[in-house]
Amino acid sequence: MSRRTALIATATLALGSGLAVLPTQAQAATVVVSNVTDLSNAVKNATPGTVIQVRGGTYRPTATLQSTANGTSSSPVTLTAYGSETVKIDGSSLPAGAWIFKLTADYWNVSNLTFQNSPDSAVVCQSCTGTVWNNIKTIDGGDSGFTLTGDGTVNNTVRNIDSYGNYDAANHGENADGIAVKFGSGTGNLITGARLYNNSDDGIDFWSFSSPVTVEHTWSMGNGVNRWSDSAFAGDGNGYKLGGDGEVVAHVVNNSAAWGNAGNGFTENSNTGALVLNRTTAYANSKWGYYFATSSAKLGKNLAVSNGSGSVNKGSRVTSSGNNWDSGIGTPAFRSTDASTTYNARSSSGTLPATTFLTTGSTTIGATMN
Ligand SMILES: [Ca+2]
Ligand SMILES: [Ca+2]
To answer: Do the beta carbons of residue 299 and residue 293 sit within 8 Å?
Structure first.
């Protein structure tokens, strides 16, 4: 055992039911929790370097888990599953309108947790700096699955999230997105390896966020389809809704795909900024593959096939080159149009499952689907 390991081991606190006694000094401590009370207290009372490990099982908090406790860049707070155990934090015992987890803090690493059945949004990170979310699931909630919001939303990374089945019944599905980065500002935010599907509204939504966000290696599919027999269904169903509310922002989307969405695959959504989309693929979305009528978007090496309204609706300010709708550019054949493998389990490291769906082997156009 190394000195470092020994130090951490002696700092481990095994907590009994309801006895969440945490060190108040700012020292590293590993806290293993196995009930809702200890989990709630551990989250609330974390200090820089605290490692919270949650034992396997399904947790049903009766109040929102929340924290304003900051880590630091060199000593983040860690919240994760214990070992390889499966942890589900279930919102079905929360009051109406509640979120499962609200973080208003900096430098947290959160990983290997499922947040399900929230009455409202599942996870909301408000004015967070330097948080890293790895292998998170936000599913079957009553509003958006995962949200970054507020000014001071800086340098956050969302890696390998699955966000699906979210539906806001009260508004007939109008608002529940897979990932929402909305109503705020701050640079350096990255979404990578996300799988966003079967949400009532959009896969990704950057409504009223005034700083550029980068998306890569992400799949957004089947959003905005009325799966809830809602006779007044109002979901929009864009794969990537890249703006709105008058903000002029140069969001970036690389090597990502949208398919089977009820709206557009990728849309500026009235954002007139210099959006950048490279090597993305839009397939079989009900409206446009790419809707960029008013922006000064730079569209390069994108591939659009079988979208209901057409491949692209682009205004005169758009720069377009190397896309399959540009003159002289061919459309490579897909190896597969059977999406079933895209829903498979992720790799052991959390990356997207292997698939041939929408792959072409091209080194010059379209998403590589990994
Ligand atoms: Ca909407
Ligand atoms: Ca939306």
So the answer is: no
Interval between CA 182 and ligand 2 midpoint (Å): 9
The pLDDT of residue 116 is 99
Tell me the CA–centroid distance for residue 170 and ligand 1, in Å: 13
Looking at all shown ligands, the one closest to residue 236's CA atom is: 1
Q: Which of 241, 287, 301, 314 is catalytic?
A: 241
The token duo for 106 is: 């900096």
- Residue 294 near residue 268 (C-beta atoms within 8 A): yes
Nearest by Cα to 239 from 301, 165, 177: 177
Q: Which residues of 152-189 are buried (b: 16+ CB within 10 A; e: fewer)?
A: ebbbbbbbbbbbbbbbbeebbbebbbbbbbbbbbbeeb
Residue pLDDT, tens place only, 26-78 = 445 999 999 999 999 999 999 999 999 999 999 999 999 999 999 999 999 99
* Residue 241 among the catalytic residues: yes
> Which of 171, 234, 243 has its CA nearest to residue 206?
243
Residues with CB under 5 A from ligand 2 (ion): 177, 201-202, 205
| Nearest ligand atom owner, CA of 144 | 2
3-state class of 92 per DSSP?
Answer: helix
Q: Are strands 146-150 and 179-184 parallel, antiparallel or unpaired?
A: parallel
Look up the pTM and report it.
Answer: 0.92
Map out the domains of the chain as residue ranges: 1-98+109-114, 121-370
Centre of ligand 2 from the C-alpha of residue 22, in Å? 40
Between CA 115 and CA 251 the distance in angstroms is 27
- Which pLDDT value is given to residue 22? 54
CA distance 320 to 221: 24
Give me the pLDDT at residue 13, please: 46
> How far, in Å, from the CA of 8 to the mean position of ligand 2?
43
Q: Give residue-wise pLDDT tens across range 194-237.
A: 999 999 999 999 999 999 999 999 999 999 999 999 999 999 99
Q: How far is the CA of 303 from the centre of ligand 1 (A)?
A: 25
Q: How far apart are CA 175 and CA 223, in angstroms?
A: 12
Class of domain 121-370: mainly beta
Cα three-residue angle 336-338-340, rounded to 5 degrees: 130
